[in-house]
Amino acid sequence: MTRLAHDRLLQGISLAAGAPSLLLACLLLWMSRWPWPLRAALALAALSAWWQLSRILRHRAQRPWQTLSNLLAALREGDYSFRARSTNPEQDALQHAMAELNTLAEQFQQQRMETHEAAALLRTIMGEIEVALFAFDGEGRLQLVNRAGEALLGRPSERIRGESAASLGLAEALEGQESGPLTATFPGRAGRWDVRRSAFRQEGRPHRLLALTDLTRPLREEERQAWQRIIRVLSHEINNSLAPIQSLAGSLATLLNQAPPPPELKEDLLLGLGIIGHRSEALQRFLAAYARLAMLPPPQRRPLDLGSWVRRVANLETRLVVHVAPGPDLTLQADTDQLEQLLINLVCNAVEAAMETGGDVTIRWELNAGVAEIEVLDEGRGLGNTSNLFVPFFTTKPGGSGIGLVLSRQIAEAHGGTLTLVNREDRAGAKATLTMPWPAPG
Known about the structure:
- With 442 residues, the protein is α+β, with helices and mostly antiparallel strands.
- It is built from 11 helices and 12 strands.
- It has helices spanning 6-31, 36-77, 93-128, 147-153, 157-160, 171-175, 216-257, 265-294, 306-316, 336-357, 404-414; strands spanning 132-137, 142-145, 180-185, 190-202, 205-214, 302-305, 322-324, 331-334, 361-368, 371-378, 418-423, 430-437.
- The strands form 3 sheets. A 5-stranded antiparallel β-sheet has the order 2-1-5-4-3. Strands 7-9-10-12-11 form a 5-stranded mixed β-sheet.
- The radius of gyration is 45 Å and the shape is elongated.
C-alpha cells in the first residue's frame, strides 16, 4: 500500500473502512423478508454509494495537493504571482499550509522587486561613475563592465563580454599582487591608474572585481597647483630682492654719470653696494632653504629612546623652561638627527608663542592604539590662520623662512607618521601633535 499514490491510498482506506458496514447491510437485507428484487436493488444502491463516496474522498484529497504542487512549481519557476485559495486557515491544517505558502510567495515577490530596484540603481551608479569597473569570473573571463570601462577599452560590452583579461590587456592589473598605482596604455586612454581589486561570489561561484581610477588628471591638477604656488613664492621673494637691487643700481649709475661727481659719491656707493650685497645674501639664503626643503634625505633609522630624545631637546631651550610630563618608556626606530630637528622646530615655535603672553610650554607623550603621540603645548595666543601653516615659505615671523613646519611635516611623513597643529580646547594656546607608528618599521 505504501507504493500507491496518496489519493489512491486514501480511496483504498475508505473502501476498507466502509466494507464491514456494507457487508453487514447486505447480510441484513439477505435475512429480511422483503421481495428479492427490492433486496437486490437496495444492495446494488449501497454498493454504488460505497464506491462513489470513496471516489469523492479521493478527488477531495487530490485537489488541494494539486494546488500546492502547482504553487510550489510556480515558486520554483520564479512566478510569484500565483496564489492558492484558502478559506479558514485557523480550523484546517491544509488551509493553513496554503495561507503560509501565499505569504511566502508575497515575500518572494517583494524581495524580487527590491532586488530589481537595487540592481537598476547599481547599474545606474556604475554607468555614471568615472571609475572603470570590470567583473571577471573564476576563469578570468569578463562578465560585467560599466560605461567607463567600455570607453577605456574602446569597445562596447557586447563585444568584449566573455573575453579573457589577457586579451583585453587587463592581465597585469587583475593578476597583480598588491593594489596601487599602475602606469598602462589602453585603447581608450593612457596614463597612471589606481588599481583596486576585490573578490565576491555570484551564484556560489568566485568572481573578481577590478576598479581602475584615472590618476592623470588629478595628478596634473595637483602638479599645476603646486607649480603655481612655487612660482608665486619664488617670484615674490626674487622680486623683493631684485627690485631694490635694480633701483640702487640705477641710482648709483646716475651718481657716477654726474659731472662733477658729488662729494658724497664714495659714501653713497658704499651704502648702495652694501644694500645690494645684503639683498643678494638674503636671496641666497632663501634659495638654500628651498633646496633644503626639496632635498630631504631618507631617514636612517636607529633605536631612539623617546623620553631621552624629548628631554634632550627640552634642555636645549634656554629662553624658557620647557616642562616635560612623564610618559611610558618607548623606543622608536627613527633618524635621530631628523627627529631632533623636527622637535626643535616645534619647541622653538611654542616658546616664541608662550613668551608673548608669559605662558608655559609642555611636552608630553603617550601610546594610543599602537601609535606614539607626542604633543607640544604652549600657552600663547593661539593660531590665527591655520590654512597656511604648512604652505612653503609662508611665515608671520619677521625674518622667518617659512620652511620650519613644512620641513617638520616632511620628516614626520618620511617616518610613516603625521604632524598636526591646532588651537587648544582647554585654554588659549596651540597644540602640535606628532604621531609615530609603534613599533616603527625597521
